[in-house]
């Protein structure tokens, strides 16, 4: 499959069924309800046959590059009826067809309001694809860091950030229930958390870590999201997921990107450090108020400051250096929901 990266593109090339003769039936997405023989070049669609597009629609639709990451390139594909999906073209898949399909089947069956839906997958020698729901509100990373300092920026208020944290925590809790309580996300970060139409956080890119090549050590060190043990083992666990989620909570509170070189102690020691280490350092010196994002510190009343301090304590618990010090995600969900009991 060839998808060009220059503005809008057309999807074409190898991403087709093998039988393209004029006598063959129309090419449609293969539904999970069909008994069609799996030959390696069919798209497997979850959720029955009630879909607003088919394979030909996808192939002929315009594609916009949303981003490139360690797991591949992500595209927004817009159909003629203006509906959209996200297509992720995976690179460096290290498992065979059977294991790939098993993992996709497990993820595709997962249904939860705070987990981004896997709509379909595709496996062939040349291409491995995952098709997800598209969220018009964009990612948490975009909402937190996009247009910083610009006059037209609309900042996220504290209520919005609390809704996002609550939804994302519930989503991660649901993910960890998968595969008989052994499913791991492995790549929790703000660019993989999306906002639904009600402004709640939804976690995407589920379950890809186990089928992809391990992230390079340099990536683990520089991202700011990975637990200390990951830089050595490069093997994710549910505990390391909790650590990464804790970093997201700290990112929500500070408005700082964990991967940003702006995370420094320049005003105190000139030492560069990651976001979690910087916050630990500030809090240890009893300067807690200095960590909060200036976009929300101006809010007053309703116990907002107290709620932010509670969230800070939860985030710091999640980023415990030792794995055994970190709470289980179920505990994290309860703690966040208890911040504001009406939630």
UniProtKB/TrEMBL annotation:
Keyword entries, A-Z: ATP-binding, Nucleotide-binding
Region of interest (Disordered), residue spans: 14-36
Residue ranges occupied by any Protein kinase domain in the UniProt entry: 60-343
Molecular-function GO terms, alphabetical: ATP binding; protein kinase activity
SUPFAM superfamilies the record matches: Protein kinase-like (PK-like)
InterPro entries, per database record: At_inactive_RLKs (IPR050994), Kinase-like_dom_sf (IPR011009), Prot_kinase_dom (IPR000719), Protein_kinase_ATP_BS (IPR017441)
Protein name in the entry: Protein kinase domain-containing protein
Originating organism: Brassica carinata (Ethiopian mustard)
Lineage, top ranks: Eukaryota, Viridiplantae, Streptophyta, Embryophyta, Tracheophyta
